[in-house]
Specification:
Strand order of the largest sheet: 3-2-1-4
Number of strands: 4
Helix content: 40-55%
Pfam families: HicB_lk_antitox (PF15919)
Distance between the termini: 30 Å
Protein name: Type II toxin-antitoxin system HicB family antitoxin
Number of helices: 4
CATH topology: Double Stranded RNA Binding Domain
């Protein structure tokens, strides 16, 4: 199993943010350190799933030394995040959405480093998890 370096950042009045230097645009956050690590695993899995769906190459993880040699990365705390590349087979579906909602989904996904599918999967999983709690 591959592991990517996630960088955790925390400002005094913010949640725990996580970014992936090897995967620009893949960011997430959690209200606690444990929540941030869980969200990091989920964001990484969804991003990799999107790369696979789009037929794009999955980049090799950089070493800790490579990541930390960049001064911009030194303000974060490095954690290893497992990449679940052996995801279940993705199934194409046809859904109908109001045009303005689809535009909002696409705008949010692009701004936060997701594919449309990845964002919808994450939103559905979060909704189902929240309702089960």
């Amino acid at each position: 199993m591959r592991h990517y370096i996630g960088l955790i950042h925390k400002d005094a009045d913010s949640h725990f943010g996580v970014s992936f230097p090897d995967l620009p645009g893949v960011v997430t956050a959690g209200t606690s350190l444990d929540d941030a690590r869980m969200m990091a695993e989920e964001a990484l899995a969804l991003h990799i799933e999107g790369l696979i769906e789009d037929g794009e190459a999955i980049p090799e993880p950089s070493s800790l030394e490579q990541i930390m040699s960049d001064r911009d990365n030194r303000s974060g705390v490095a954690v290893l995040v497992p990449a679940k590349i052996d995801q279940p087979k993705a199934v194409r579906v046809n859904v109908t959405l109001p045009e303005e909602v689809l535009a909002q989904i696409d705008q949010y996904a692009e701004a936060h480093g997701f594919t449309r599918s990845g964002l919808l999967v994450q939103a559905a999983k979060r909704l189902m998890t929240d309702e089960a709690a």
